[in-house]
Amino acid sequence: MTNSAPDWNEIPEAEFRATIRECIENECPAELRYHPYRFPPEVTMPWYKALHRRNFIAPGWPVEYGGMGLNPSRHLIFIEEMEAMGTPWLHDAGVRNLGPAIIAWGTEEQKAYYLPRMHAGEHIWCQGYSEPSAGSDLASLQCDGRLDGENVIINGQKIWTTSAHVATHMFGLIRTDRSGKKQEGISFMLIDMSLPGITVRPIANLGGHPDFCEVFFDNVVVPQSCILGEVNQGWKVARSLLGFERIWAGSPRRAMKVLRQLRRELETQGLLDDPLWADRFAKASFDALDAQDMYTQFADLVRTDGKVGVEISALKIWSTSIFQNLSEMLLEVTGSRSTLSTSGEDDLLAPYYESRAPTIFAGTNEVHLNILARSVLGLAKSE
Amino acid sequence: MTNSAPDWNEIPEAEFRATIRECIENECPAELRYHPYRFPPEVTMPWYKALHRRNFIAPGWPVEYGGMGLNPSRHLIFIEEMEAMGTPWLHDAGVRNLGPAIIAWGTEEQKAYYLPRMHAGEHIWCQGYSEPSAGSDLASLQCDGRLDGENVIINGQKIWTTSAHVATHMFGLIRTDRSGKKQEGISFMLIDMSLPGITVRPIANLGGHPDFCEVFFDNVVVPQSCILGEVNQGWKVARSLLGFERIWAGSPRRAMKVLRQLRRELETQGLLDDPLWADRFAKASFDALDAQDMYTQFADLVRTDGKVGVEISALKIWSTSIFQNLSEMLLEVTGSRSTLSTSGEDDLLAPYYESRAPTIFAGTNEVHLNILARSVLGLAKSE
Amino acid sequence: MTIVDPQTAEMLRETVAKHCERHADGALIRASRGDVPGALAADVATMAELGWLAVSVPEDHGGLGLGVSATGIIAEGLSGCYSSDPLTGLFLGARALVHAQESDGLLAQVVEGSATPVLAWQENAHDFASPLPATEYRNGTVSGTKRWVASAAQASHFVVSAREDGRDVLVLVDASSDGVSLSFGTRADGTPISELALTSAPSTVIARGSDATRALRRTLDEGTILVAAELMGHIDRMMKLVLEHLNTRKQFGKVIGSFQALQHRASNMFVHQRLTRSVLTTTLGCADLITDPVEFGQRAARLRARLNDTTQLVMRESIQLFGAMGITDENELSLHIKRCLSLLGYLGNSTEQRRYWTALSAQSARTGDTN
Amino acid sequence: MTIVDPQTAEMLRETVAKHCERHADGALIRASRGDVPGALAADVATMAELGWLAVSVPEDHGGLGLGVSATGIIAEGLSGCYSSDPLTGLFLGARALVHAQESDGLLAQVVEGSATPVLAWQENAHDFASPLPATEYRNGTVSGTKRWVASAAQASHFVVSAREDGRDVLVLVDASSDGVSLSFGTRADGTPISELALTSAPSTVIARGSDATRALRRTLDEGTILVAAELMGHIDRMMKLVLEHLNTRKQFGKVIGSFQALQHRASNMFVHQRLTRSVLTTTLGCADLITDPVEFGQRAARLRARLNDTTQLVMRESIQLFGAMGITDENELSLHIKRCLSLLGYLGNSTEQRRYWTALSAQSARTGDTN
Fold it and tell me: Where are the coiled-coil regions (chains C, D) (predicted)?
């Protein structure tokens, strides 16, 4: 890691943007760009490695850990430039999601071991939360971890584990104590997927891609040093991480991507001046641009206060909903072409398929509506 | 009442329509037509009387009671012609709503006394169901009727009683027994509003008109012969009447009226060919015309089976919702003109105000959604 | 043309339901994606045997003399096989011949399944409201490219819309002729859809000028009604799956269908489903009797727009209410979703239907009547 | 121009809140409907005294040199009086002078409240996106009819948009001049709005050609932001009333706010409220610093469209969740509803804002940049 980087928050915006663009142009091959789905990690690894070399892989991390230390508005610009040039969706749950949690909760040993390896793309992480009977009601998870000397013996199952079939590691919630309330007795564990007793079954998603998996644990032995935070206190770690995840889950970047695709369509069809489509496009643009205003505000709050308030559910609900609306509008404007399965940049169905998951994952939008009603609006519990 | 009328269901449609139009042209003065709000009864009484004379006042009643005996499609045409020519909204809850209930449940004496008088406009009826603590939860009504020999002594209050300030009679639900379940012990009573102890306070609605009232009962003595159906069995009578009311409440006639106003606006502004407004207008038209298809089907079912299934809640929800949507679209298409309070046919705010009540009255749309979930979709009770 | 009587309707409904019970095969559909001809609800021989190809052929050609009212019942029912293919493709071909009053014996073969004409009319993605082919007919041959040709793999003939000296014509092309070449794309549901390249292909004119224009328009309007009928079937089936899910899936210790917020969502879906059913029933109950092209086109457009809109709503809400299960390819819901995605933009999406309806309104305003 | 600093902003907010606590008077508003000048949040003297008229006047004219960012705070707060009148009317007049760089001392009088110029720009119901006045200026007099002139009853002068030899001009007319006549209509909230008839009224040109065009455009865009800010206040207050109602009204033996279906409705309203608040905060936080007219116009248009759409949603849902109480004129909610109805179509409704935004996009595409 080089230490000679400029202060990315201080250099002029134009220069900052130019730096990112230069990096993409030189390091991200054209065949990786503007692809609607996620490539397998080996395909995108050269690009990942390049970001790693330049210390661009973890823009939100502090500089001392190889991050760029970007403030939220710069972070947004970073994402904006990446999206505008169609850089591929990476397997970066580690740097994006787990990294900040390790920085906050990890022991020095954990930091020293995990952070550089996820930074380098040597470890690919997946998140193991959901179980067949613990979806919206996550706290009722059952996947069993028996404390046994230095180790934890894991038995049970996870499901909807994104990218488990290509991950080297999983950060997961494991029930290590059944004596207390259901939020208690859960540990946040860092699990090597190559351990004996782990079986992964990919599940095809609507787009026909193996995006998420079932993961089965059969007497998997994990050392207790792989618990992040304290044993049985995993819920706390997971909740703190939810903050970051919810900012990410509420980002309008995916809606913005469809908006650009929509605009290209209208331009190609000569409909930008058609009063009907101009009105619909303006409305769609407002929906996405307004989401950006909201996103920036929440991101600013996170930076200022260091925490995300419950109001952020509103951002997640809005951004994921408009992603769906825009994907449906794209089908409408393309008429009979919308019925065809194609691939690459012209894939009109991909946004439709891709936009179905975000309203369900990271807490269904219905769960977030409950949260708002209870915690923000102060309405009485519904039972 | 004349008995020489043709069979209105059999004569050719064109002739039927012409007959109605002729009646309107000759009997309904221009100054009464295309008025957005309800006139006081004395203003519309000459027109009411004319309909009475021609036996056109109760189109849905059997011929033997002075009705036209119209089948649903003819009944729709009847309403369509009336609406198209802007005939005023009458105080006709009696003939429209109570009449069929008296025909179904009344004693010969009740039929002989009430039917001709409401037919002639001599009695003007209002419906007294809601109370301050019994809105959506109607069965919990408290207005007290103590059985006392031949009489019932009424004490308590009704609210949201449409037209109580101009009505001569109220058909109301009165609690005459408190020993059983809350749906039991209610009697359906026909109450003369001129009785001592009745006080009426009009409540101004959003449009500034005294459309509904509070009605207070202070030791009002009503003979038991004014109970329709059996004592304590009023819920059954009210439910049977709900069928008629729900067909009426689900009629798209009000949405159609706004659709026509919208069309006039677009025509005047030269926007019928504008791609944006043409698309919106087509969508609005589909919403209303589709509602007519649904309405006709339900009306047919009523005629065939003699009863309304619970599915009819769908019609009520749809027709009242699109009435609101159309009223909002009318504001949008009229730009700055929409901000002005005017009167008569050009009143742009009237549809907005008028469309707020139907989603609340005759069972809030939320109550109807509950009914559908429970009784049509078979979902489990929510507590 | 007459409207199907209740007894025949019921018989059709039962036959189709039985067929679906026996032949619905999600695994086969998944395995056949991208193949030609791909999974079918029934092959041509079976459809002929069941009498489904005879339904919309006039009696003097050996058919049943019914129309879209009866075929709509079959299309709706075949949603139980997750697709009605190749019913709609064959219907369009046969109806084009009927409306063009073609009479040299081909329709009799349609009834038997020995001739399978298919309509090739579309060239651009947004042709539905006002098709104006670039395909040219001259001196017995036709040249041009047609796209979104459904069931082309089954076609014995193509009924092709073209222009001759600036006027519409409908011509008949033998599928095995020189100058006829097919290529296949894949739809959202994995079934093929074709591009038909015609290079001086030998052809016979079956309708000219306003006769051709009228015949094509009526055929397309009927086709869009048929698609609407199939969509209704998918809506009902998606609703059924969702309600089953709501009544069985538990979270927070109770079935999720007991949560009032989800109940209202389901009820709202039902409101649209019920509305849509009314419009379909009304339309199928009168369509074949309507002779005025404006009235027919407007009814069809309004019906189809409603079906499309409700389908979109039910797809979106079904997936959401299913939760993570809803976004896998492994459940039954996904088969309906993908079929619907293949149909929504076929023969006119909602926006196109509204544009078409508006154009007809303007046309009718010019000639006097409205609505 | 500078952006209001947090301290000043807070001070303004508090002053306005205190003012509303003392002066909000629903009964007076109901009693004054149809009157001229009708109920006001504060009269001109009070507004001047509180410094509200000085806020947006440049410092070299004795003002505070702030702009729409600070005035927006006042407008939003005055929703606590159910209306901000005559703030917006006076703001528009003053800002037109500012942007026209009028400098003969009138702005100094604005600060004191001794001059109250009001903008008269609109002639037709849909002028917002591209106003093109029919009003004519020639040789020192102006003739034409202006409509939807807010706060005309308070006007000492009118800033009038007109055409001179086919070019835009802004002219100043003394309200007491010959040839100036006012008539009053009533808005949904019962307050007056005026038609201004000018018949060869003596007038002074304050800006010509592109200067006039630019000054008017900037003023209108600022005005629409101010309306947006007031709407935000009404949204928050309607939400507050609804939540109070949900937490107190009982049906079926429990507070209706405990019904999950209603909770989701309320939460959905909150999603829109929160989104809208973000857009407003972002806009007020940068508006006065934006010099590019395309960027400014697009920001203003997007903000206003969001405010209008959310207001419509919150009005509709508030009334519904209030039940029968929601459709009476007797509760506090109705005062906000009626004020919103008076504002939604003033200075551009959503459709007009989107059209304006689109036109700016096209303009910006022509000159190079997008968004």
Answer: none
E strands present in chain D:
117-120, 136-138, 141-149, 157-164, 167-174, 180-186, 192-202, 204-208, 250-251, 254-255
Q: CA-CA distance, A131 to A138, in Å (whole number)?
A: 8
Q: D-contacting residues of A 33-72, CB under 8 Å?
A: none
Q: Which of B126-140, D106-120, D195-209 has the lowest mean pLDDT?
A: B126-140
- The minimal CB distance from B372 to the residues C267, C275, C355 is found for C267
A355 to chain C, closest Cα gap in Å: 10
Query: Same domain, yes or no, for A174 and A268?
Result: no
Query: What are the residue ranges in chain B where pLDDT is below 70?
Result: 1-4, 243-244, 303-307, 383
* Contact (Cβ atoms closer than 8 angstroms) between residue A364 and residue A263: no
Three-state DSSP at A221 gives strand
Give A-chain residues touching C185 at CB under 8 angstroms. Answer: 340-341
Mean pLDDT rounded to a whole number for chain D? 96
Q: Which of B27, B131, B214, B245 is catalytic?
A: B245
Average pLDDT of chain C is: 96
CATH 3.30.470.20 fits D213-370, yes or no: no
- pLDDT tens-digit readout, C313-344: 999 999 999 999 999 999 999 999 999 999 99
> Both B57 and B149 in a single domain?
no
**Is residue A60 domain-shared with residue A147, that is, in the same domain?**
no
Residue of C nearest to B297 (CA): C278
Task: Tell me the residue type at A272.
Answer: L
Residue type, D350: S
Q: Is D354 on the interface with B (CB under 8 A)?
A: no
Of the three residues A213, A233, A253, the one that is the final residue of a domain is: A233
Helix (H) or strand (E) segment spanning residue D338? helix D332-344
Residue of D294 and A310 predicted with greater confidence: D294
Q: Which chains touch C (3 or more CB pairs under 8 A)?
A: A, B, D
Residues A157 and A218 in one domain: yes
Range of the structural domain that residue B252 is part of: 241-376
Best mutation target among A129, A280, A339 (most C Cβ atoms within 10 Å) is: A339
Q: Give the integer Cα–Cα distance in Å for C159 and C173.
A: 6
Tally the domains of chain A.
3
B80 in catalytic set: no
State both tokens at C100.
Answer: 């063009």
pLDDT greater than 60 at residue D309: yes
Per-residue pLDDT at D371: 41
Residue B326 domain-assigned (yes or no): yes
Chain C interface includes B376 (CB < 8 A): yes
Same domain, B300 and B365: yes
Residues A380, D254: C-beta atoms closer than 8 Å: yes
> In 3D, which of D283, D360, D288 has the Cα closest to residue D99?
D288
Is this prediction's ipTM beyond 0.85? Answer: yes
CA distance D217 to chain C (A): 34
Taking the C-alpha atoms of residue C350 and residue A279, their distance in angstroms, rounded to an integer, is 17
What is the identity of the amino acid at B70? L
Q: Which of D186, D204, D202 is nearest to D194 (CA)?
A: D186
Which residues of chain A fall below pLDDT 50? 1-2
Q: In this structure, are B212 and B311 located in the same domain?
A: no
CATH number at residue A157: 2.40.110.10
**What pLDDT, on a 0 to 100 scale, did the predictor assign at position A243?**
67
**Per-residue pLDDT tens digits for B53-93:** 999 999 989 999 999 999 877 887 898 899 889 899 999 99
- Among B175, B201, B233, give the residue marking a domain's end: B233
Residue A322 lies in a domain: yes
Q: CA nearest D261 in C: which residue? A: C261
How far apart are alpha carbons B242 and C117 in whole angstroms? 54
pLDDT at C2: 74
- In Å, how far is C263's CA from the nearest CA of chain D? 8
Q: Which residue of B has its CA nearest to A276?
A: B276
